[in-house]
Amino acid sequence: MYQVLYRKWRPQTFSDVCGQSMITAALKNGLRAGRIAHAYLFTGSRGTGKTTCAKILAKAVNCLDLQDGEPCNRCVNCKGIGDGTILDVVEMDAASNNRVDDIRALLEEVNFTPSAARYRVYIVDEVHMLTPNAANAFLKTLEEPPAHVVFVLATTEVHKLPATIVSRCQRFDFMRLSPGDIVARINHIAEHENFTITEDAAFLIARLADGSMRDALSLLDKCISRSGEVDADVVAGVAGLVGNDYLFELSKAVREKDSASALSIIGGLHESSHDMERLCSELTEFYRNLMIAKSVRNPESLITATPSELERLRAEAGCYELPELLHCIETLQNALERINYGVTRKIVMEMAVLRLCSPQLDATAESLHRRVCALESAAKAGRVLAVQSDVAEPVSQPAKPEKTAAKPADTKKPADTKKPAAPAADEEKEEETEFPGWGDVLEILGASCHPLYGVLQGSSAYLRGDFVLIDTDNELFKSLVVRDGNKKVLAEAIKQVTGRDYRIGVKKKSAARTETTQDALSEFIRTSADMGVKVDVK
């Protein structure tokens, strides 16, 4: 009967294990010194050699002719464990045997001595699947098992294990295999299996495997079934990397903000029975690849693609700014979370693509950032962006400037004091000098009159004759200074600093300055309109 490659070429010694040299060295040193732990914990992602090392360890602790920490694979025990005739090595799947009763049955067995081997070895795979009650029932025996028992626990999700189990084991973390290690193993197998494989194909398989040797050999098995001469095109065809032109077409529609074309593409894919959840995942991965191609100088090790497709990705990434790609990924991820809860998956996908084509429909910070980047790019290119009439119209009319124009303080009628006297004609001709002690006056007001201190923040003052003329853009000052004796408080503060009495006045704004302020306001309104923000000037 045909055996698949990952079973046929499973390593039989620690030296054959790829990419885990530090772990295998530690295990061999312990075996050579006779330091055999009662419990081991192997953690790591799929296909990295956890179960393989557990089986090799089971043979090594029972080997009758241990050779430098390696099982000989020739003695009776090694052969019996390898072909399953020795029942002292038990493999248990915790995913299907995770109840308290299953653990109790295992704990009853451990009290029996081995029938043929030196140790009874229990390999518990996917140990994180044990229920809390089963894990608690396992604790005592795991901490102090009989002398003839060795536990080897394996899991891909160690974070789900209770800390009480982890602390009772010697833990070894298996790393993902590098593409170089996988390629070397593929080439070694190709020499003995009578098929040829190109270097590009081997590296493409290694990248598709994502650090898993089992996934790599399973994909290689399918490629061999298709052709005895495996090249990059064969691998791409088997892995489904061809025929994804619709992703580039959708990307083009998003770049050109062509909502009609994008919806037409989605409609065609839906008619051809393309699952919308899968399409959303593929498009998310596509934009992720564009992000990598945009951010990394040599993205070959991070992107799973053929050389020709990688060049297309580079060219497409050059048409985007990085914030745009981040917004696209964020929008599609949100759609992927909601796609199973909507009325139909197609509607959720169409809404997501519309948001990509029209960022103004999206109110998120990422969308705003994308639109700001578009404005910056347009400004750098010298393009003039048209302002939408429905946004610009409310701010194009004068928004009651008469009510907000600066007026002299003498037009107000004070409640408890006389009207501030205006400077005389001859006094107006006197020279104005900046009031050097204005900061001290504000400091005094901070302790004596908080409202005045607040409205005078950022103001300045000038001396003209026996007047102190205050220069401030805060309109509240004019109404506040004539109310509740505030004018007297301000005059007293000035007297404390200068030692003499001054009258209070408001410095008139020059026409040029008023015009400059209005121009700055108009510029702010135009910029806000370009960004789609409505500004209501009252």
Q: What does this 3D model show about the protein?
A:
With 538 residues, the chain is of the alpha/beta class. The chain has 4 domains: 5-174, 3-Layer(aba) Sandwich (Rossmann fold), CATH 3.40.50.300; 179-239, Helicase, Ruva Protein, domain 3 (Orthogonal Bundle), CATH 1.10.8.60; 245-381, Zinc Finger, Delta Prime, domain 3, CATH 1.20.272; 407-508, DnaA, N-terminal domain (GMP Synthetase, Chain A, domain 3, 2-Layer Sandwich). It contains 26 helices and 11 strands. A 5-stranded parallel sheet has the order 2-3-4-1-5, with helices on one face. Helix 10 (213-226) crosses helix 11 (232-239) and helix 14 crosses helix 15. Residues 384-428 have low confidence and may be disordered.
* Nearest-integer average pLDDT: 82
Which class do the helix and strand fractions yield?
Answer: alpha/beta
Supply Rg. Answer: 39 Å
N- to C-terminal separation?
Answer: 85 Å
Please state the overall shape, judged from the principal axes of the Cα atoms: elongated
Low-confidence stretches: 384-428
List keywords for this structure.
alpha/beta, four-stranded mixed beta sheet, Rossmann fold, Zinc Finger, Delta Prime, domain 3, 26 helices, Helicase, Ruva Protein, domain 3, about 550 residues
Task: Please outline what is shown here.
By secondary structure, the protein is of the alpha/beta class. Helices cover 53% and strands 9% of the residues.
Topology:
Layout lengths: L4 H4 L12 H13 L5 E6 L5 H13 L13 H8 L5 E5 L6 H10 L10 E6 L6 H12 L5 E7 L7 H4 L3 E5 L4 H15 L2 E2 L1 H11 L3 H14 L2 E2 L1 H8 L5 H11 L3 H13 L4 H20 L11 H11 L4 H17 L6 H13 L7 H17 L7 H8 L4 H4 L20 H4 L4 E2 L3 H11 L1 H6 L4 E5 L2 E5 L4 H5 L5 H13 L4 E4 L4 H20 L8
Parallel strand pairs: 1-4, 1-5, 2-3, 3-4, 6-7, 10-11
Antiparallel strand pairs: 8-9, 9-10
Helix pairs in contact: 3-4, 5-6, 8-9, 9-10, 9-11, 10-11, 12-13, 13-17, 14-15, 14-16, 16-17, 16-18, 22-25
